[in-house]
């Protein structure tokens, strides 16, 4: 779903990197210094998926100047795993072309990456890419709430979930505004954790939610998320 949407919305390159990073192991080496590198690279992204995309993009840019190894060493990345991510990115691009999702391109050597470039005019728009990622994760979503001076992520049934230790989407780092966090799956150990988190805007939840209904005071999304909206605004959102 993410790949199809990103093709239509011209941000395919970044989403290919997101999908490739999902198929690989954590690219950061297991030492304390890697946590600082992770925080540095993820600044302003609010998405575990977009961090993977940024790692891919940074490595590919460095590799053009034959500095890929140096890029990995500087950011405490496992070079072999990053290379696997970029290789998978190319294979996914070939799949997109083979599926006929890119007009004017046919299956063949290196055609996939060329096609991805032609559909990546807006890949630098972080909010757009985040919205496409969230579209692929919905309806797995938690609402952001302020309780006891802390930002919490709350599910439909009222359960609280936490970010896993290595996630870059930690409650105390998120914007102080209403919003949502999408997740890949829930994992229960000592508590309930969400894996692969991504900040979601109100608009992303409304536009890409599975079920959006008109209610007297606005919109109801997926049977539990309410948005207040004036009549004309609500009707316009339903048409998107």
TrEMBL record:
Residues 129-211 form the DEAD-box helicase OB fold domain. Keywords: Signal. Residues 1-17 form the signal peptide. Pfam families: OB_NTP_bind. InterPro entries: DEAD-box_helicase_OB_fold. This is DEAD-box helicase OB fold domain-containing protein. It comes from Hemiselmis andersenii.
């Amino acid at each position: 779903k993410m790949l199809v949407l990103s093709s239509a919305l011209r941000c395919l390159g970044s989403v290919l990197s997101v999908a490739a990073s999902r198929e690989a192991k954590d690219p950061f080496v297991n030492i304390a210094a890697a946590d600082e590198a992770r925080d540095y690279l993820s600044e302003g992204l609010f998405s575990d998926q977009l961090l993977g995309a940024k790692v891919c993009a940074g490595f590919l840019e460095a590799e053009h100047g034959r500095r890929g190894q140096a890029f990995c060493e500087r950011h405490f990345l496992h070079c072999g795993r990053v290379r696997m991510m970029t290789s998978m990115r190319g294979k996914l691009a070939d799949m997109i072309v083979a599926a006929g999702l890119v007009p004017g391109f046919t299956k063949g050597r290196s055609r996939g990456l060329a096609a991805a470039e032609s559909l990546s005019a807006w890949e630098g728009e972080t909010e757009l890419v985040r919205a496409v990622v969230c579209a692929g994760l919905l309806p797995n979503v938690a609402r952001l709430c302020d309780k006891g001076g802390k930002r919490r992520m709350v599910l439909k049934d009222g359960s609280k979930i936490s970010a896993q230790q290595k996630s870059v989407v930690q409650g105390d780092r998120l914007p102080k505004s209403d919003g949502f966090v999408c997740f890949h799956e829930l994992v229960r150990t000592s508590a309930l954790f969400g894996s692969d988190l991504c900040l979601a805007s109100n608009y992303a939840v409304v536009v890409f939610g599975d079920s959006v209904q008109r209610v007297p005071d606005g919109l109801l999304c997926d049977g539990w998320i309410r948005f207040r909206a004036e009549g004309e605004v609500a009707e316009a959102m339903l048409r998107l």
